[in-house]
Write a structure and sequence with these properties.
The chain is mainly α. The protein folds into 2 domains: 30 residues; 67 residues, no CATH class. Helices cover 82% and strands 0% of the residues. It contains 4 helices and no strands.
Length: 101
């Protein structure tokens, strides 16, 4: 990589950090309703779902069943166990077993 790309990466990191750092004092002074708090708490989950879900069907090339069953294993185990690693390991294990057989 040349220095131009490094400059862009460092610049984007600085801008992202500054925007997040400056937003904390502004947001702490706002009095939001409980409904607004509930909405804002759901945003990260919705964004993560929108990023991850399309790849569920294409995670393993030509083996959509393994991807799909791994996804469902992750959903089930994550709803039972609060530790995210349990869901990840379950998804990997189920996908591996489907590919093995």
């Amino acid at each position: 990589m040349n220095s131009y790309i490094y400059t862009i990466i460092i610049g984007m990191a600085i801008i992202t950090y500054l925007l997040r750092y400056l937003s904390f004092p502004c947001m702490s002074k706002l009095n939001l309703s409980p409904r607004a708090h509930l909405f804002l708490r759901a945003v990260p989950y919705a964004a993560l779902s929108a990023l991850v879900f399309p790849d569920v069907f294409t995670a393993i090339a030509d083996e959509r069943l393994a991807s799909f069953l791994g996804f469902f294993a992750a959903v089930i185990f994550s709803s039972i166990f609060p530790n995210i690693m349990v869901g990840v390991i379950a998804a990997i294990g189920v996908s591996f077993l489907v590919l093995l057989f």
